[in-house]
Amino acid sequence: MTAPLIDNLQYCNFSPEIFAQLRAGGVDAVHVTIAYHESFREMVANLERWNRWFETHPDLIFKGSTAEDVRRAQASRRTAVFFGFQNPSPIEDDIGLIEICHQLGIRFMQLSYNNQSLLATGCYEAEDPGLTRFGKQAVAEMNRVGMVIDMSHSADRSTLEAIDASARPIAITHANPHWWHPALRNKSDEVLKSLTLRGGMLGFSLYPHHLRGGTSCTLESFCAMIAEAAERYGVAHLGIGSDLCQDQPDSVVEWMRVGRWSKQMDYGEGSAAAPGFPAMPEWFRDNRDWGNLRAGLAAAGFDNGEIDDVMGANWLRFYDENFGALA
Fold it and tell me: Across the chain, what does the average pLDDT equal?
């Protein structure tokens, strides 16, 4: 069987049209955000919506929970959908909900989203005291059940402590190196070295605020960055987490940025003007454009095996090793 195509982070306004585009682009598996700031019950309502989509579009998508589901998706020419949280809010203050969420199909959870959470510090906070006592126990529980620790929006000390505390490799599912583009959300060389030395995975983001040049970022620049990252950290630890937010209304940005915690807009990395989703680069507008990225990697000097690794084989190996319970 050929190597799979896996996008390890999307937050699209999903629809039958996008499901068809996933198939047109040959996407075998996608990790989708099922919660930003939702409570447990609100997250369950989002799962209910996905269950309806699985029921009504079984020819295009199905729920994924194991690495074997990626291979099943390849064989049946469908897309396996894996769930993740961008914030630990659905577990509320109850460590027992980690196992319940894993039983419901959640396979990734960020320990913080920009702000301080009950578990760790987000990257927009002025001070980073690291993992909390709850956070350290949550890491151990996530390790036990097979839920991947994601530090994409977390601050450096918290991320380094999570890498050290975890008995299993962790992931930064959607970010780029800070040395390429100094966005607050991109990751330091120290973090990326520690992540990859411990077997962790970095998913490169195509969200314009994370790109050098934003929407005008060239395919050549993006793929040259991946080539340098491969030299620094090893190609075996690299994948894609596009952070594609296709068809989302601009109003959703407010929910992403502030949830219910603030009366004021947190502009973060975007403009101080009315916030909204930036336009994607012209070479990656939606899931039908994966061929452009493959061609760009080839032009940057990657051979076919290395391209397969970055486009999905590395994530599949990571799924194989980390979605099950500890023995």
Answer: 96
